[in-house]
Amino acid sequence: MDLDDIKNQPCLVLVNGSFFFSPEERIDIENHLKDDDISFVFFEKRGFQNNILSGIEIVLNDPLINLLIGGLVMPVVYDNLKKVIQLTIKRIRNGKVRTITASNSSVPNILLKIPTKKGEIIASIDRELSEEETDAYLKALIKAADSVDENDNYNSIYRVIDDLSDGTLEILTLNEYLKKHHKIK
Fold first, then answer.
1. pLDDT per residue over 18-39, tens digit each?
2. In the chain, where are the structural domains located?
3. CA distances to 5, 14, 35, 180 from 57, in Å
4. Which residues of the chain have pLDDT under 50?
5. Burial, 106: exposed, middle or buried (Cβ in 10 Å; 0-12, 13-18, 19+)?
């Protein structure tokens, strides 16, 4: 599959996470989603990551998010998509790969990402998600993507989906997110 295929057909992309799956598992996942006309692509992008919103990415590409926004994805396809996302998160969370910094060693950050015409929408996942939580994250991402692309006044490059203590999610600009988590003043 080449870059044009990824841009033009519904696709779920796993960036920097292919080593969490055996070759047989990768083929099985790819075939499972292919039955739903969704591609699953493993992509490696190496280099230094010096960003709080970096890590292993699960990206829903533009054609896939447009199908989700338009409600054109059948419920069984949506459920399969959620299961693949959950499986991927579980594999990463339970994997033996660690991010090592000068001060600690931790499980790599997992990001659900949606690129839009006006920037990226990012949800940082710090734990395994239940089916209901995965559904809530996907719905928040879809809602954010729909509102961002329709809003002519939108001028932020990033939107971040953040967990609230009551289990709900909120959509913040990057500045709002950084201030809330005391990363900037």
1. 888 889 988 988 888 888 899 9
2. 3-180
3. 19, 6, 23, 23
4. none
5. exposed
Residue with tokens 């961002």: 148
Which phi and psi (to 5°) does residue 124 adopt?
A: -85, 125
Segment holding 158, helix H or strand E: strand 158-163
User: Rounded CA gap, 54 and 64, in Å?
Assistant: 22
**Per-residue tokens: 75:** 């419920």
Calpha distance 58→139 (Å, rounded):
15
Residue in this structure with the two tokens 């990551």, named with its chain if needed: 49
Q: Which of 57, 37, 36, 50 is nearest to 123 (CA)?
A: 57
- Please state at what angle helix 131-150 crosses helix 75-94, rounded to 10 degrees: 110
Cα 12 from Cα 64, distance rounded (Å): 8
Q: Which amino acid does the sequence have at 158? A: Y
In sequence order, the 6+-apart residues with CB closer than 8 A to the CB of 74 are: none
Q: Which of 172, 123, 145, 13 is CA-nearest to residue 68?
A: 145
